[in-house]
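hiii so my PI (J.) wants the whole complex modelled not just the main chain, which honestly fair. so below is everything: two entries, each one labled with what it is. i double checked the lines twice but i was tired so who knows lol
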Amino acid sequence: MMKTRQMPGSSFFNIATNRETIPDTARLPFLLACLLIFAWVAWHVKPAKADPLVVDLSNHLVAISTGFTGTDVLLFGAIENKGDVVITVRGPERDMVVRRKERKLGIWVNSQSAYLRNVPTYYATAASRPIELIANDRLFASYHIGLENQNFVTTMEGDDTDDSLYRDALLRNMEYVGLYNDKPSKISFLSNQLFRTDIHFPANTPTGTYVIDVYLIRDGRIVSIKSTPLVVSKTGVSAEVYDFAHRYSALYGIIAVIIAGFAGWLASVIFRKN
Amino acid sequence: MQIYLPIAEMSVNVLLILGLGGGVGFVSGLFGVGGGFLITPLLIFFGIPPAVSVATAANQIVASSLSGVIVHWRRGNVDVKMGLVLLVGGLVGSSSGVGVFAWLRSLGQIDLVISLCYVVFLGTIGGMMMIEASRAIFRTRRKGGAVRRTKKHQHGFFHRLPLKVRFYRSGLYVSALLPLLVGFFVGLLTALMGVGGGFVMVPAMIYILGMPTSVVIGTSLFQIIFVSANVTILQSIQTHTVDIALALLLVAGAVVGAQFGARFGARIKAEYLRAGLAALVLAVCIKLALDLVITPNDLFSVAPGNL
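here's the output for the full assembly
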């Protein structure tokens, strides 16, 4: 699942290490060839004058407190020259199981299942223009941009061998609960250089570290990539309760019983006279 | 007003949950039942994960059964000895139930088993109650007299078992194995269904053990407190699915609702109450049964999990 981030053209440096094997008579043509290649590379890959892409978030921490009902994080940035911007937001990964129901003896029963590894628990994209106008599918596929370009490792359990139905079901379900967005949301440009977009995190946003990748695309090619983290974590009472319930689970259970018992006793005292 | 539930990991409307607790509390006060069989399906219906619903309902039942038993205790309607014997069976049953629950959850079949248990038990009990209540209504209308009581001492197979013990408060001399088995079985249900099991326990006490009706509810509530407390603690340890915040909201709504329900219920004839309860139980049963049979919108379900 590693993303390849090498720019095309970096493989040319391998030629230089093979110099010893070249005979003297071929030196001049070789040097010429090197020069040509250098000129070609220089022409196509312009040296970075300034940072072509700058981005930041309004907030690097989304705090889930007791009153949390979802939130928006503002992503803003600037590009040097005209170009398109595509953003992916990827939540913490988790192993998921997708189960398929089958009718057995008249009732619907979970039967076959597929285990999908390293599934992002949140995924969203945003783009400055309709994505098909920005670049072709192959570019997005090679950078794993978009839900259809995620390579989940699946293990099937049962007779089914085709995992595509299960993958579709996963995407459909995650979209339904609001954790995946199927269509990229809009990145708006304030001028030719400045852009902004809101990333929405719903109330059921999973906690963990998110990675936001920002791609600058020009003429169907990726010019620059910026990556920035975002942490979603519970704070305040809800965080402490969750933490306590997992760390001291027996004590938590006993406290839950005592509180409930007290509430029951209190109720009978309050309403006794009536 | 929204509140984020720390264990369910979702935000819910406070008024909705209070109203839910209040409504179920009203029903439980009206009919004299725990209401667990309503709370769990309703929580699932409102999108709370089934595992959290079951475990949290058990926690809520601790509160409602305790406030209920205090009333019966003052009137001397609790057979402590019988309650303790039932409790021993109940603790074993509920402990194994929590284990079964965790195992079924890992298999991905817990939702099915919860639904099936509900359909079978609610259908059986609701059907039997409906028949009994409508007969009683019919009889009182025709004769205008009181309902004839069933004979207390029926000497069937159950009464030939060894280990006979005398239960003075219930006026019974039966084998201790009987209440132990009943307790075990109801404890199992408490863990699997998130219910107090009163709706199974009460008929079992009357028809299998032959206990007098006056002590049945108090004694069943008495042992339900401990069995549901056991389930709450075990679920906390094994599945981390007890949500204190959710339980407290439910309790707050339920205790108020129960008072109104009890007052309202005092004005209605017992057999009409039983018929009403039977209708409610059957309605929940039919709803759950239809969900099992009707083709779901999506044949696939997604859950966190690994091999």
